[in-house]
Amino acid sequence: MFYHTEAKPQGWRAVAVFDDRPDALLYLGRSSTQVRAGYQEAFFEVLDEEEREHVRNISLQRWHGAPDAGKWMHLTNLNVPAPVRLARSA
Length: 90
Prior knowledge:
The protein has helices spanning 32-46, 49-53; strands at 12-18, 24-29, 55-66, 69-78. The protein is an alpha+beta fold. The chain has one domain (12-78). The radius of gyration is 16 Å and the shape is globular.
């Protein structure tokens, strides 16, 4: 039997770190550039308002090791997105 595997698996992720609950995956991608470009939108889609209030930071992590025997390594913290405020029209 033949099992097809990706030539380049997703090796980067953004994880929300909370002050009072377990971490939550926000975004998974093939590169740090892809994750940095997409995590802010995912922050508002994946987490509800109450959860967003408890996010302490967002961890950018890279998979280190073989696909079946490795671990996620923290590289840096990303900015926690601020809510968009709409201006009122006159």
